[in-house]
Amino acid sequence: MCRHLAFLGPEEPLGRLLVEPPHGLYRQSWAPRRQRYGTVNADGFGVGWYAQGDPAPARYRRAGPIWADLSFADLARVVRAGALLAAVRDATLSGADAEAAAAPFAAGRWLFSHNGAVTGWPGSLSALSRTLPPEDLLALEARNDSALVWALALARLRGGDDAGQALADTVLEVAAAAPGSRLNLLLTDGETITATAWGDTLWYLAGPGRRTVVASEPYDDDPRWREVPDRTLLAASRTDVLLTPLKDLTEDLASAPSKEPRP
């Protein structure tokens, strides 16, 4: 269900990261190599990116498949960014929300994506939804599981949690309410990337020159790609990648992270 990617590094055309790689997100929309659930990601796509000097990201989202959007091909060729989050979508259930259901979701400086599915949706999260203020529920961009998971994480961010704590607590809470859910979450503010591996694949590439990519699957065969173990929280900057087992998570996320060496 879905493929996504986040990037931090020197400015590059969007297409160099999303379209040009032999197994990039563009190709993953119809031929993913490591997707465990679903086969075609043609129910929408989106990309959010940060323009230099502007902390609020821009977004381009559509309800159809990425390969059918000629305007995106032009945009990806000329727009450059040093930070982005992009996703192609395989809908869990049919719905009428169109591009509003396509990641990335956004609030302030944040961009968010969910690769996976909540089991028993929507009933399984009815109790959790009642923990949100009514205005947050009314402001949901779409009526799908990903939008509600984002609202739960965003409430924690607005409450003062750092990105790692917000994603980790959201995953553990949703997994307890809906066992068997797949909750690979991806979050960026243009300076950091935070992600969870919970039920589906997650990889990262820590390249030279202050460059980090986190993705559902590698977009090429570079041997430096590393798979993130399941049940793991990833926190990355342009220079460092930290992995923390979610099953061992305590209130202090910084208590025992493992620092992955740069190549």
TrEMBL record:
Family annotation (PROSITE patterns): GATASE_TYPE_2 (PS51278)
Sequence ranges assigned to domain Glutamine amidotransferase type-2 in this UniProt record: 2-263
CDD domains reported in the protein's UniProt record: YafJ
Described function: Catalyzes the hydrolysis of the gamma-glutamyl amide bond of hercynyl-gamma-L-glutamyl-L-cysteine sulfoxide to produce hercynylcysteine sulfoxide, a step in the biosynthesis pathway of ergothioneine.
Organism: Streptomyces similanensis
Top-level EC class: hydrolase
Catalytic activity: gamma-L-glutamyl-hercynylcysteine S-oxide + H2O = S-(hercyn-2-yl)-L-cysteine S-oxide + L-glutamate
InterPro entries cross-referenced by the UniProt entry: EgtC, EgtC-like, EgtC_Actinobacteria, Gamma-glu_amide_hydrolase, GATase_2_dom, Ntn_hydrolases_N
Name this polypeptide is given: Gamma-glutamyl-hercynylcysteine sulfoxide hydrolase
SUPFAM superfamilies in alphabetical order: N-terminal nucleophile aminohydrolases (Ntn hydrolases) (SSF56235)
EC annotation from Swiss-Prot or TrEMBL: 3.5.1.118
TM region positions: none
Metabolic or biological pathway, per its Swiss-Prot or TrEMBL entry: Amino-acid biosynthesis; ergothioneine biosynthesis
Entry keywords, A to Z: Glutamine amidotransferase, Hydrolase
Residue ranges that the Swiss-Prot or TrEMBL entry lists as coiled coil: none
